[in-house]
Amino acid sequence: MWNSLRSEERFFGCTKATSVIPQKTGSAAGTVGERVGHGRTSEDEKARYIRRMFDTIAPRYDLINGLISGGLHRRWKQATVSSLRVPVGGRALGEIWRVLRPGGRLAVLEFSTPRNGLVRGPYDWYSFTLLPWLGRLASRHSDAYRYLPISIRHWPAQEAFAAMMTGAGFVDVRYQNLLTGVAAIHIGGRSAAVR
User: Fold this and answer.
1) What number is the average pLDDT over the span 102-130?
2) Class for domain 2-189, per CATH?
3) Which residue of 14, 53, 82, 121 could cross-link 144, Cys pair, CB 3.0 to 4.6 Å?
4) pTM of the model
């Protein structure tokens, strides 16, 4: 049985009310990954959990991505890389903009919000039922792929993330939905003129 949970998350200093997030009933506290995904842990506990989770799944990360995306992740990565010719770094959009050379571009490939209502229901079932099962089999980490779909639901929707990029100073910001918005490529540039 699934209940709904409304929550609010902060990304790059902006508050975003998330959409309704399905939450499995029957467990008072949920798994560690579920608690981390819903923001019910300290920042230190979250950082430790994510570090341990990625250390565990890293050796099989490409295999897992292939399984959970049906092989589409490779095409999405290629589409992202073909949109970008300059390596970038940084932790937040403002910092990325700061270190990006004038005339440079940023491309962000991230899971997102499906735009088609007919896709959203099956995608939620897949994300909260099949994905954790496949992830557990492939990664041998029982909780990592319970965290992933919850954290995806907290990521800003396409328009909101595009607005955040614009607010950070990026120009010519646009996004391309992949598989009706299951994932999206966001692209923005830094003006060639020095500010």
Assistant:
1) 91
2) alpha beta
3) 53
4) 0.55
